[in-house]
Amino acid sequence: xxxxxxxxxxxxxxxxxxxxxxxxxxxxxxxxxxxxxxxxxxxxxxxxxxxxxxxxxxxxxxxxxxxxxxxxxxxxxxxxxxxxxxxxxxxxxxxxxxxxxxxxxxxxxxxxxxxxxxxxxxxxxxxxxxxxxxxxxxxxxxxxxxxxxxxxxxxxxxxxxxxxxxxxxxxxxxxxxxxxxxxxxxxxxxxxxxxxxxxxxxxxxxxxxxxxxxxxxxxxxxxxxxxxxxxxxxxxxxxxxxxxxxxxxxxxxxxxxxxxxxxxxxxxxxxxxxxxxxxxxxxxxxxxxxxxxxxxxxxxxxxxxxxxxxxxxxxxxxxxxxxxxxxxxxxxxxxxxxxxxxxxxxxxxxxxxxxxxxxxxxxxxxxxxxxxxxxxxxxxxxxxxxxxxxxxxxxxxxxxxxxxxxxxxxxxxxxxxxxxxxxxxxxxxxxxxxxxxxxxxxxxxx
Amino acid sequence: xxxxxxxxxxxxxxxxxxxxxxxxxxxxxxxxxxxxxxxxxxxxxxxxxxxxxxxxxxxxxxxxxxxxxxxxxxxxxxxxxxxxxxxxxxxxxxxxxxxxxxxxxxxxxxxxxxxxxxxxxxxxxxxxxxxxxxxxxxxxxxxxxxxxxxxxxxxxxxxxxxxxxxxxxxxx
Lengths: 446, 172
Ligand SMILES: Cc1cc2nc3c(=O)[nH]c(=O)nc-3n(C[C@H](O)[C@H](O)[C@H](O)COP(=O)(O)O)c2cc1C
Ligand code: SF4
Ligand code: FES
Description:
The complex is a heterodimer. By secondary structure, chain A is of the alpha/beta class.
């Protein structure tokens, strides 16, 4: 059994209440930080821990904190990204609804490190019931003196607020999130300036994912060095993986970084194998934006090594034969899955969610959807397959925010690894459009 | 709430919502009232029958001292705000990849057949249900699923799950 740094007490009855949470060691990091450490010492521990942002990009959290403009005389903000809308990702919702005080505790300790006097949790609007759970936890923390003025007599003041979005995937992008929190449309900003300098209300701001912030208490309690002992290389600590698709046991698993992908899929400790006794066909390992890999390449790298659940191992081979850990949204597909249909569905998603500011993304995502739609529905041409690749190339790297890339990569990867399946849709449209029809040939290895 | 009272002239926030709006405004710097726009739009939609008419959007603008356009451009950007009248229960079905491969299509067909409403079309003739396709709701491990108001209805491929849910909603 791997260690559970975040979810150890997840199933304790009443853990969503302050008293039970506190009895199980809750809020110790706030006491330790506020009473015995300077803000910079807290940041230093987070740096030592090697903790990387859990929202998708994997940027080192301590480094991000150290970029915060501390010379500015404007207020500083910590904003928690609880927008969780990346298809395949459902870990933050789970963590917040079961362990609301863990996030509140992390927000207090992290805000102290950053010198924020007001912090926000921006949660996707659909999760209004989770917002209410968080609000209750926040109210309790105020009542117990862990929020508000002069917390634990330390002289440190902090207000913590929770704010709902309105239904827009793009608001997970950090600058769109800040625009949205200011009451505007969620249009990503041009960068630089980065939020560390020009964030919420033009003030220095750190935006971190829920899971990143929830990892701060254990790092402060045990020390960054202890945390860094778990995992492999630059993938330290534990990671929440939300597993879905055709698995016997879909759900949320906290794993130590470094678990082999094969073990994660097949062992009973985790997903328990592919449902209905079927064979695995493909996996999208880190949320819908990362490249899909066929079974052969998700279990082993192109060099024949076991693929591990770490940032580095999943990325081994680059996009030619690898993928990304991303948000930890793990989508497993069995042998009956039509890759063309699934890719079309993702293209439709990105087209729907494009904010429309830049033409390569606005137009390109529309084209991807359109071309995939006609391929899936049996009206495709041979040249459409290369057209997809060419559209994806024209979007990639040419947009204000990474949503463009996120739309392009899944399509490019699907064609790269499953080209035969697209060709089959062109060659035999009648057969391919039968309900439940699926290509049974070999997936192409790059 | 029936559809006719939604369109009554000069809507007003209930006393309870007025108190909640006052509380919300303490969350943001005094010169940043506009930050309360999304939470206030949610309150408005919940109070006025599940959608925000132009009159309701004007009320929100008045309440927060915003120009009406500032509210319209936001209400139209975010998919949670319904700009047309809806049935009593809006069933928002996730159609994205992970749900799709776990039976979202079948769920959608079943719902159209059992409610008489259509996706992207009219509410059911009895005004009870509207059907809406939405993107991933962070519930992919319990697909197929839908949201109705604040509730998540998950694993709807279990035998009888849809019928049980509809019966409950019809009675509520
Ligand atoms: C289109 C798009 C959607 C995103 N959605 C989320 C999200 O839902 N949650 C999240 O934490 N980060 C999301 N991100 C990443 C954020 O921009 C940002 O990198 C992250 O919140 C930083 O936190 P971290 O360093 O703790 O991961 C998204 C990025 C893009 C481009
Ligand atoms: S890449 Fe797409 S989502 Fe991002 S800013 Fe441009 S149009 Fe908007
Ligand atoms: S894809 Fe349906 S909830 Fe995520």
